[in-house]
Amino acid sequence: MDNWFKSKWFVRAVSLAFAVLLFIFVNVEINDKSAENRFFGTSNETQTIDNVPVDIRIDKNFVVSGVPEHVRMSLEGPQSVLAPAAKQRNFEVFVDLRGLGEGKHKVEIKYANISDDLKVYIEPKTIDVVIEERASKEFNVDVDFINEDKLPSGYELGDFMVNPQTVTIRSSKSVVDQIASVKVFVDVAELTESINSREVPVKVYDSQGNELNVAIDPENVEVSAEINNPSKKVPVSVKTTGKLPDGYSLVSITPEVNEIEVFGTSNSLQDLEQAATKEIDLSKITESGTIDIGFALPDGVKARDQDSLNVTIELEQTKTTETTKTTKTTKTINDVPIEVENLGNEQEVSFVEPNSPKMDVTVNGKQEDIDKLKNEDIKLSVNADGLGEGEHQVPVMIEGPEGNEYTGEFEEVTIEIT
Questions:
Q1: Considering the chain, what is the average pLDDT of its residues?
Q2: Which residue, 107, 310, 322, 413, shows the most beta carbons closer than 10 Å to its own?
Q3: Does an H or E element contain 19, and which?
């Protein structure tokens, strides 16, 4: 045995045998790897990914325009590498603008964290950008209330508050210089209750009304606003038209309440002095009783909890006999003066409609009474008690000898107190 190891032919034979074994082992490994590749597939595939976000790396004192928010990326390579990369999206797409100064630049869109086994194609590959100095400025926030005309009848917008009242806008100096308005929009359509701390986004516009893409801090503000339903109490005024049928005279006409509460906008209530009813046609009344009559209120004004009220009418039948028949006649007394009663000591009054303190009165009665009637027998008056400065519509009271019916040229007159 020792002689074998000492023989040079023996050593050569053993070396050859090891070389053959090594060749066979390497060949088997290569073939196994080839078989594995044929089983799993090594042919390259391509997958396109849309809307890949682009990150911007830039010095803090600058801002940039011209960088797209998203790009399209195509990846090509083995399916075993491609599929996880496309699914997990652990890669980054970015433009690196650090070290670049103000002005125009053509830069490449880069990527990171993608396997070297994949080929990467980005559309667009390069872009033109403009780098500008960063600027920031505080602006007051204005509130635009929209659909205010769609508030329910009688409701109106009151005081409002914005919190915070100012925001900080950051962008390039050229864009900040374009800012003309900073505002929020609040929809108040159909609201009957006040707005309490509603969060709304802030919008920024230039002088042409174009919205600007800028950084806003904070992006949202809170708006609170009062939605009011103003009210006031006014006296009830019963309106009539026509004349009672022959043989009847009016003793009294009385509403069930003398005062009601009405609601409406401040403007609609400002000049409202009374709650007038719809007109009662006296020509259709032939007996005493109670009728339900609605209100004739201005647009946008409503009475609380009621649209009408009861009015009690008391009539008196005129007595006639065959032996005491008396001819009825009608006469118009012209230019009867109107007196203003209960005017304040320092108040003065003028007539607006009619423009003079006189009006005609038509009298219906017995011929013998009418013939004796004179202008001074009739008294016309309006009551100014409690009326302040301004214009007022007031009813005209007519007094005259009993037994006659009196109809004034106007049921109401308009006076101005100063």
A1: 85
A2: 413
A3: helix 8-40
